[in-house]
Amino acid sequence: MAATEAAMASSSLSLETDTAPVLESAGTAAATAAISPATAAGATTEDPDTKSAMANKLLSLNGVFAVHKPKGPTSAELLNRLKEKLLAEAGMPLPKCNKRKKQTFKIGHGGTLDSAAKGVLVVGVGRGTKMLTSMLSGTKRYIATGELGKATDTLDSTGKVTEEKPYDKITQEDIEGILQKFTGNIMQVPPLYSALKKDGQRLSTLMKRGEAVEAKPARPVTVYSISLQKFQPPFFTLDVECGGGFYIRSLVSDIGKELSSCANVLELTRTKQGPFTLEDHALPEEKWTIDDIAQALELCSSLLPEETGLKKPKPEEPKEEKEESKEQALSCECVSLNEVKVEENVIQTC
C-alpha cells in the first residue's frame, strides 16, 4: 500500500474512470502496476473521443437482428445482459428510471423463449422495436425432444412430475400416425405456466405463488409442418414449423395423451423465427458488440419485407444540444412482447 502511494505521488497522476485518459509520464507504468485490480478495472486509457464515437454509434443503431439464447436465463434477463454489455462498451452508465427524461435508447425482444429453451431470440433496437410486433405473427421453427411416460405441471422437465404412465407399447409408427391430427389449423389449450395473464398478472407467476389458476380456453393456432426426426423410447424428437401463439409444450403433452400415455418437453430449440435462422443469423454472446450488431442489422435489413422498413430518422439535433446530451445519463426503454395481446404486454423498464 505504501509503495502504491509513493508511486502515485511521484507520478503526480489523477486516475479517473470512464471518460478521462491516464496521462503519460515517467511514473505511469509504476503507478499502473502498483494500484489494486479493482482500481485498475475502473481506470481507462481510451480516448474520450473514441468513447463518444461509440456512444453515438450505439444510439444510431436501428433495426432488427437475432441473438442466440442459451438455456438458463429468461428472455428478459438475456436482454438486460445484452443491454449492459452495449452500454459498457460505449462507456455509458446504466440508466436510472426517470420518466421525465426523454428516452434515447430503445431495445426489446419479440417472442419469449422459456428459460429452459434455447435458440433464436429476435431483438429490436432503436426504431426497430416498433417492428417486433410483426415478428410475433411470423412463422417459427423448433426442434423439440419429448419424454414419454411422465407428465409435469409445467409440461417440461423443469416442473414437478404429476403423472406417470406406461409407454413401452408405443412405436414409431404410432407417433407418425397421429401427427396429422396436429397439423394445419387446430385448437390448442395454452399451458398454465405461461406468459398469458389473469387480472394483469402472468399465469406462471400466480402458479408459483400457489394460487389456483384455471386453464385458458382452447384457441386457434396453426402448424405448417411437423415430422418425427428420431424415436428412442422414451424419447422422441420433432421438427415443428408453426405460427404465432403456438406452444410446443402443449403439443408434446397432447401427443402423449393421444398415445394413451403422457409426455413432457425435455429439450427445446428455436431454430428459426421469421427470416432469422439459428445457423446463419443468431449472434452468440461473444459477438454482442456494437460493431457486430451494426453489421448484423445491415445484413438482416435485406431479409425483411419492404413494408416493414424503418422510417427516415428525424433531423439531427443542433450541435450544442448534442454536447449537452453527452453529459447526461442515458435513458433506456426495454420492450418485451409476448405471444398474445401484444398491445397489452409492452413492458417499459429502465
UniProtKB/TrEMBL annotation:
Keywords: Acetylation, Cytoplasm, Isomerase, mRNA processing, Nucleus, tRNA processing. Residues 308-327 have a biased composition (Basic and acidic residues). The keyword Transport does not apply. InterPro entries: PsdUridine_synth_cat_dom_sf (IPR020103), PsdUridine_synth_N (IPR002501), tRNA_psdUridine_synth_TruB (IPR014780). SUPFAM superfamilies: Pseudouridine synthase (SSF55120). GO terms for biological process: mRNA processing; mRNA pseudouridine synthesis; positive regulation of pre-miRNA processing; tRNA modification. The keyword Signal does not apply. Pseudouridine synthase that catalyzes pseudouridylation of mRNAs and tRNAs. Mediates pseudouridylation of mRNAs with the consensus sequence 5'-GUUCNANNC-3', harboring a stem-loop structure. Constitutes the major pseudouridine synthase acting on mRNAs. Also catalyzes pseudouridylation of some tRNAs, including synthesis of pseudouridine(55) from uracil-55, in the psi GC loop of a subset of tRNAs. Promotes the processing of pri-let-7 microRNAs (pri-miRNAs) independently of its RNA pseudouridylate synthase activity. Belongs to the pseudouridine synthase TruB family. This is Pseudouridylate synthase TRUB1. It comes from Loxodonta africana (African elephant). The lineage of its organism: Eukaryota, Metazoa, Chordata, Craniata, Vertebrata.
